[in-house]
C-alpha cells in the first residue's frame, strides 16, 4: 500500500500536487488509511501526452492483442483478492455479497469485450465491390470499417465502485475500441480505484501494451476533470453521475476549439405504469416487487423506479396500502457517502413539501445519522403536471406515486416527462393491446421498455440499451452498457479502390478473419 | 408558378412575413421571376408544431408506407420535367448535363432509401433471448431496434441544388428513418426548392402521409434557421455548407435547454499525397487527373482536392510544370453566386499573399466579372507548417501544392492537418507498403481514404463514408451520404420480456419481416 494515492502516469507513479485528501467510511464517518494527492495540471497533461503517443501503436495492435490485455485485466483484478472487496466495502458501505457480485460483473464485462474482439465482427465491415461495367459511370470498390477515435477520458461513478468505475464498462469499451484511457478516480472510493489501476497497469505491462494506454488521476474537486475534458488531445469523454456534473463537462467539451463527444449518463426517474387488470389480479405482488426495487441497494441505481403511474381505482388503493406497509417495515441503509445521504434527505423533504404530496409509507425503523429511510409519496396527476419539481430525480430509496383520473391524464403525464433510461409496463398481456398509444408515447421517452419486470438490473449483452433521451443521457443514440457501448469510441472509415495487401484484414477480399460483413447490403462470412 | 415564394406549412401555403427577396442568375447578375417571402417566427412555429403532431403517425406508418412515399417523391420530381432543370440552371449557372445527372442521383437516392426500407434490415434488430435457467440469475429476453428521433430540420446546400437540397440526402434519410422534416430553403436557389417542395407535398398527399411530414420555409437571412434550430420540438439538425454557418447552428443547438445533435458537413481541403514511384511512372497522367478534379464543377465540391503533398524530386518538378500548363489552358467558370465568387477571389488572393507561396499555374483565359479563374499555388512544407492560414479551405477551383524535404516533413504535415472528408494516395502498389506509417496517420484525419483516384465523386451506397473528424464535420461517427446516413436520425430502444403480440414486427420471435437480425451475436434471417 506504500504508493497508494499517487497518480498513475503510464507505468510510473507521481505526486507533484500539494493538496491531499482521504476517503471516508460512510457508515462511521471515519477517515480510512491512505493519503491521495490531487493531480497537478502538469500531471494531467503528461497523462494525455502519453495516451496520445500510445494511440498509434495501440490502434494498430489488433483485436487479438487487445483481447489478451482485457483478459489480463480481469485476471489481475481477481488476483487482488479480498483486499479489493474489503477496501470497496469500507469506502462505499455496500455489502460484501453485492461487491463480490459487482466484481463478477466487472470481470465478466472485460471478458465479454475480449471475446467480442476475438470474434472480430464488431468492426461492422461494409463492402460495396467495384462495378467496372456500370453505366453511365463505373462504381469504385468501397470498403468501410470502424476505427478508434483516440484518447478517451473516463470518470468513475460513485454508485458502482467496480462495474462503472476504474475498469468498468466505459474503460472496458474504450480500451476494446482501441482508445487509450485516462481515468479520473472517484474521490469517494479512491483507494478502490488505486487497487484496480494497479491491476490494469500490471496487465498492460504483462501483455506488452504501449505505455500510456492507461493512466489514472486523483482529485477531490473538479479541476483535473475540467483540464482533461478541455485537453486538445482528448477525443471523447464518458461520465456517469449527476446531471449537474454531466452537463458541466458537456458544455466544456462543446466550447472547445474542436468539440468532442461527451457520453454522460445522468440518471432518471424510470416511470412504472400499473395497468388496471394487473392491479386487479395482483396488487399485493406488485407492491412487494416494487418496494423491493425501490429499496434495492438503498435506491442507489440510475434505474431505480422513482415514479409510479396508475389510473385511480379501488385496486390502486389496495396496492398503495400494501406498498405503504412494505416500505414501513423496510430497513434504512447507509448511503454511499455523507454528501449523497444529505442530498437525499434534503430532496426527499422538499418533495414532501410540494403542494398535494402525501406520504404513502416511510420506514419506521430507527435511522442513524449515516442512514437513509425508504420513503414513498403520492400526488394527483393534476398537481404533478403543474409542478416540474416533481419530475426530478431523488437519488436514493424514494418513489412518487401519481394517480390519474383516466387514460388522457396518463398520456399527458408521459408526454410531459423528460427523457428516461427506462419505462416499465405492469400489465396483463390481454389488456396491454388496448394501450398501444400509451406504449408508443412511452417509447419516445425511454431507452428501454420493460414488461412486467423491474427496471433495476441492467443485463450486459448485445441487445441492451442503457441510455435514453436527454436528460437521461447526453446522447440517446448510444448505450453505456453492453457490447454496443464500444460504438461510442469509434467512427467509420471508407477505403476506396485499395489494393488488397494494403487493406486491414477485416476488409481483405478473402475475409481472412472470417467475420460477418455486409456485402452489397447482405450479411455473410464469405 | 402563382404560389411560388410562399411557405409550405404542411399541405398549405402561407406568406405572413413582410420581407421579400428574389433569386439571381449568377451568370448575368439579373433577378429571376418569383418573389419569395421570408418566413415569420409564427410560421416557423406552425411548421414545427405540425411536424411534431405528424411524428406519432409517421413513426408508426411502417417501412412499406414510407418507401411508397419516397418512391412517389422520386416520381413527382421527374414529373416536374424540364421546368425544374431550367430553373436550377438559371439559379446556379450549373450546366444542363450536370443538373440532369444530379436529378438522377437525387431520384436514385430516394429509390435506394425506399428499397432499404422495403428490405427492412436497416433497423439493426439485436436479440438476446431469455435464459431462464442461467445461474446465479436468469437472463431476461432483450430485443433492440432503431427508432426515429422526431422532427428534423434540414438546411439546403448551395452547391447541389437537387442532391443536397430540398429532396436531397439529408431529407431522404430523415424521412426514411421516420422523422418529419422541416426544410430551410437555400436562398440562392429558392425557386428550385419551391418546385421540389411541391413534388414532396404532392407525394405526401398521394400516399396518405400525415400533414406536417414535410414543410419548407424561405428566408434570405439566418433568423428562420436559428428559430428552427432552437425550437423545443426540433430533435436534430442537418446542414451542409460553410464552417461559419455550421458552427453557428452547432453552438445554438448545444446551448438549448435540451441539446440536440447537429450534423454539419463543413467541407475540407482533402489532401492528396503523390508518392515517388507514382511520380516517376506517370507524372503527366497525375497532372491531367488532378487538374481535372480541381476544376470540375468550378471546384465547387466539398471533396475538391485543395492540398497536394509530395517529397521534392526532379519528377515532382515535371509534374508541377505539367499541372501548371493544364491549369493555364483551363477555362474559367461562373460560380454558384456572386457571394461565392467574391469569397473565392478574396481567399485565393490572400493565399498568394502568404509568405513563400508561388503560383504554379493560373487560367490564362479572359475572365468576366461573374467567373472564377482556376489557380494552383505552391509552398514549402516548412512555411506550410508555420502558417495555419494555409490549412484552410478556398472553396472553388484552387489547390495548394506543398513540397516536403523528406518523409518526416510529410508526416509532420499530416499530423498538423485538421480533420478532412477524404485523403488520397497516388502510389504504385509496390511502394505503398513502405509507407504504412503515413497511411495510418492519414487515416486518423479522414473519413475516406482513396487509392489512385480523385476524391470528387461520392458514391451513394452502403459502404460510403462522407464525414470526417472535426472541422470537416461536427460528428465523424456518422455519414451524410449513403444508406448509413439514416443512422443520424435514429436511436436504439430495447424491449425487455415483451409478449410477442406487443413487439414491433421487426423483433417478433418468428421474424415475420424476414430481415437480418443479430441473435446472440450472430447475423441470420431465422
| Estimated share of beta-strand residues of chain A | 15-25%
The largest pleated sheet of chain A is described as: 7 strands, mixed
| Spans where pLDDT lies below 50 across 5 or more residues of chain A | none
Strand order of the largest sheet of chain A: 17-19-20-15-14-21-22
Oligomeric composition of the shown chains: homodimer
Rounded to an integer in angstroms, the radius of gyration calculated over CA atoms of chain A is: 25 Å
Helix content of chain A: 25-40%
Instruction: Determine the structural class of chain A based on helices, strands and strand pairing.
Output: alpha/beta
The overall strand count of chain A is 25
Q: What form of chain A results from the Cα inertia axes?
A: globular
User: Overall pLDDT of chain A, averaged?
Assistant: 96
Protein traits:
homodimer; 526 residues; 7-stranded mixed beta sheet; globular
Please give the structural blueprint.
The structure is a homodimer of 526-residue chains.
Chain A: E1 7-9, E2 12-14, E3 20-21, E4 24-25, E5 30-31, E6 36-37, H1 41-59, H2 63-79, H3 82-92, H4 96-119, E7 125-128, E8 142-148, E9 152-155, H5 169-177, E10 181-184, H6 190-206, E11 214-217, H7 223-230, E12 236-240, H8 243-254, E13 262-265, E14 271-274, H9 276-295, E15 307-311, H10 314-328, E16 333-334, H11 338-353, E17 358-362, E18 371-372, E19 375-380, H12 381-386, E20 398-404, H13 407-416, E21 420-426, H14 429-432, H15 436-443, E22 446-451, E23 490-496, E24 517-519, E25 522-524
Parallel strand pairs in A: 7-24, 9-10, 9-12, 10-11, 12-13, 14-15, 14-21, 15-20, 19-20, 21-22
Antiparallel strand pairs in A: 1-2, 3-6, 4-5, 7-8, 8-23, 16-18, 17-19, 24-25
